[in-house]
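Thread title: Can someone regenerate the structure for this chain?

I was given the following input by a collaborator and told the matching structure tokens would be attached. They weren't. Posting the sequence so someone can regenerate them.
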Amino acid sequence: MKLLIVLHHRFELWNAPDGFAQRLQGDFPQIKVVHFTSYDGIEPHLRDAEIIITWSLRPEQFRLAKNLRWIHSPAAAVHQLMFPELVKSEVVLTNAREVHGPVVAEHVIALIFALAKQISQAVRLQQQRTWGQEIMWQGRPRPREVSGSTLGLVGLGSIGCEVAKRAAALGMRIIATRENPGKGKPDGVERVYASTEIDGLLEQSDFVVLAAPTTPATSGLINAERLERMKADAFLINVGRGPLVDERALALALRNKKIGGAALDVFDQEPLPPDSPLWDLENLLLTPHTAGLTDKLWERHFVLISENLRRYLGHQPLLAQVDKTKGY
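Best answer:
Regenerated them for you:
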């Protein structure tokens, strides 16, 4: 049995560290572990690999993998793997949503506090050597309390549920949307709406957090019309994927002060182009897709992959399976 690891990314943290493959090989001697740091020369290994750990695979590469039974993505989003041949196949697909959920949720809470307390404005005033107490109070929106405010969660996957847990501890009222409200309410969530009822959530929320996957139904989910539904002093936070938001419509809404502000960690194009109008908006807080960064990342990956390898060898259901028909 062969496990092929193919991970190549320009950002160092997204690549498996030295020793990762050797550690798996030591724990699972019955599996031959092969690790590539680029896609060059992987074709011979694709032909007999039973398990592949990778960010992406092209359809022509997938067709070579006749023995493939399981693909694991170290990302939470798997839209880059949703080509018809894989979707229709019996190959099991798992992702790392349980790895990233708690870390991204911490980032969301940090953004909520930064927006509520106007931290970005305070930093700009500091750089100008300006004592801005009166400026910050006279501005709109004013600094506010987080406790007692309403948090609208769009998506109740791993990230959404982890955000709800932390927000409830802060005394926030939490409402949410999910594709299937019949799955129930996670602890701390007051009400769950169907995805089609998102307008009602937007109208109530002081903070709207996007934590949904990218699918044809969610692309451009937050457009000009939906931004009009939000409160004038509400904040939008996106830690899902860039295509969830119409960035031009958001830039216009922020420039015209239609909403209180926004914080984005993900963008339609990454890195964000230097000429993007988003850079210059004072009521927009940008983080460069850092919500999932942690020095514990690959240890968390190792725990999940190891547990799933044990389950695979024992013919047990794998954790974090993706519904390929839905794309998440």
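The first strand starts at residue 2 and ends at 6.
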